[in-house]
TrEMBL record:
This is Peptidyl-tRNA hydrolase. One of its GO terms (cellular component) is cytosol. It comes from Methanochimaera problematica. Pfam families: PTH2 (PF01981). CDD domains: PTH2 (cd02430).
Amino acid sequence: MKAEPDFKYKQCLIIRNDIKMSCGKKCAQLAHAAVSAYEKCDKITKKKWFDEGMKKVALKVNSQREMYELKTIAEDAGIPASLIVDAGMTEIPPGTVTALGLGPAKSEDLDKITGDLQLL
């Protein structure tokens, strides 16, 4: 049996669980968060994360306030953070905060911020 790889870097993608969105809508919002946070990351971290397999973890929060708190904590720790605000063209009103992308960053640093969140 193959040993599980040791990921030193990852990206955390966080969705609001208190908004009614279809599975496809949630996936699209998390994809926006992934790309947007990645674009804020430095080149060295991007390469290290990419080279080890681009680990991502999908998590959920139960309020907009919790999402903003996580964003602030991450930014204060120097972790790239990107909040996604929906345009309102499909399922939810325009201006709705839907998702948050954190990282890529060191897994241990992200775990300090997101370690208590539930998986999506």
